Amino acid sequence: MNASKAGGGIRPDGSWRNWAGNQRSYPVRVERPTTEAEVADLVRRAVADDLRVRVVGAGHSFTAVARTDDVLVSLDELTGLVAVDDATGRATVRAGMRLCDLNPELDARGLAMPNLGDIAYQSVAGAISTSTHGTGLGFRSIAAGVVGLRLVVGDGTVVVLDDDHDPDLRDVARVGLGALGVVTEVTLQCVPAFNLHAIDEIMAVDDVVVAFDSWAEETDHAEFFWMPHTGMAQVKRNTRTIEAPRPARNIGHAARRRWKRFKNKELLENVAFGALNHMGRLRPSAIPRLNNLVFDEVGRAEYLTTSYEVFASERRVRFLEMEYAVPREHGLEAFSRVRSLIDTLDRPISFPIEFRILGGDDVPLSTAEGRDTCFIAVHVFRGTPFEQYFRGVEAIMDDYAGRPHWGKLHFQTAATLACRYPQWGRFQEARDRLDPTRRFTNDHLTTVLGP
Ligand SMILES: Cc1cc2nc3c(=O)[nH]c(=O)nc-3n(C[C@H](O)[C@H](O)[C@H](O)COP(=O)(O)OP(=O)(O)OC[C@H]3O[C@@H](n4cnc5c(N)ncnc54)[C@H](O)[C@@H]3O)c2cc1C
């Protein structure tokens, strides 16, 4: 996967746009530091000019969490591996490094990220800052694997946070929404490199709902995508292994195996899916028929390859997304209410609903803090109305103290969120300590974290 294909970013005229194209900003200054010292310097200059500072990673958040019309900082020049400790499996990376660049570098050293989300375009700091996650009950969010951070804070000084230096603050700063300072380096606890044996199949969604809990217990990484207006879901089950990829019986067999996986991805994620979505945007009444058409064509695929190539893939169709984290025990009930909601909407839905599961962690603003969690993600094709749908889903999630993904669309405020995070106060104390003058805020953060 190539980071340059990710889209969005800083434009030649100095403006910025996110991947989905729904957030734009016109910063007075764009900074591209190449060293931590340059980061500290730009923060001090912002203090002198009384400007606010926001860092942008790969721009893959759908919310306005990264936007600013003051000083926008890109860390695209602050990338690369700093060190790998073979004895502990810990890798220190510069904050702007993209996960898709990190994964092969770790692999070459016999290491891997324990778990990943659906894509790997994100920067390391951007991914942890919004509590990015994959699926797997025995695994945690990416931020939960952070063991060290270096941050440039509100007065331009550098703070080191690790096992020996303020580990309490380190624990809080793992999910910081960019509100605690500029992360310049991240140390990640990695695991020995592994492969995944993947099985993707289409099943009746009613059967999936019945079986999912036991799959979550038995399979390392289980998830499903239900296609609205059909009775079908694509189930993905990935099992960790150190077994090597099996050689194909012959060239034809290898080609067929690759084709099946490619075809599923094209139909559900990329070119063909995009074409059907364009048709559906022009004629919404055709969407249920098109959805059935897609799922009739998607078939079973089974493959075994390097972990990160299974976890993450390319997403070339632009969309808008909302994702909610609810306590594990309510996940399937919340999902079935979303199914019912879709029947009541003015407009049919052309994107699958994604259902994942994750172990709880102890990061104060992690969406899985303190509880095993199910994630329910809803999407619309870019350019189609989403408010009725997303507000309807949010009303359901409110009944389960749902926590919205910090990088995905939602309508919550600090007043509605504070009670959903038992360690909210601990985060606010860290914010007051590291950024008392709110150098690193914007209107969005004022809404979701408070002034
Ligand atoms: C196609 C697609 C698929 C996705 N799949 C998943 C998924 O499977 N699972 C999941 O959980 N999420 C997923 N996401 C959401 C995505 O992982 C998050 O929004 C993530 O934060 C994006 O990382 P980024 O580098 O683009 O950060 P940005 O969106 O650029 O920034 C996110 C936040 O991080 C802050 N930040 C970035 N760098 C720094 C830094 N150095 N110091 C301090 N703050 C910083 C920014 O200020 C901002 O607040 C997906 C998004 C898209 C578009």
Characterization of this structure:
The chain has 2 domains: 81-192, Uridine Diphospho-n-acetylenolpyruvylglucosamine Reductase, domain 3, CATH 3.30.465; 195-404, FAD-linked oxidases, C-terminal domain (Vanillyl-alcohol Oxidase, Chain A, domain 3, 3-Layer(aba) Sandwich), CATH 3.40.462.10. The longest helix is centred in the middle third of the chain and has 18 residues, at 251-268. It contains 14 helices and 21 strands. Helix 10 runs antiparallel to helix 11 (387-398). The mean pLDDT is 93. The strands form 5 sheets. Strands 17-14-16-15-19-20-18-21 form an 8-stranded antiparallel beta sheet. It has helices spanning 36-48, 99-108, 124-129, 167-173, 205-218, 251-268, 271-282, 287-297, 307-311, 331-344, 387-398, 414-417, 424-434, 443-449; strands spanning 9-10, 16-17, 24-25, 29-31, 53-56, 71-74, 81-85, 90-94, 111-112, 146-152, 158-161, 182-189, 191-192, 195-204, 221-226, 232-241, 301-306, 319-327, 353-358, 373-381, 403-404. Bound molecules: flavin-adenine dinucleotide (FAD).
Can you list the strand order of the major beta sheet? 17-14-16-15-19-20-18-21
Q: Work out the count of structural domains.
A: 2
Structural class: alpha+beta
Characterize the quaternary organization of these chains: single chain
Taken as a percent bin, the fraction of beta residues is: 15-25%
Q: Specify the biggest β-sheet.
A: 8 strands, antiparallel
N/C terminus separation: 39 Å
Q: Extract low-pLDDT stretches.
A: none
Q: What is bound: which ligands? A: flavin-adenine dinucleotide
- The top level CATH class name of the largest domain: Alpha Beta
Total number of helices: 14
CATH architectural group of the largest domain: 3-Layer(aba) Sandwich
Percent range of helical residues: 25-40%
Shape: globular
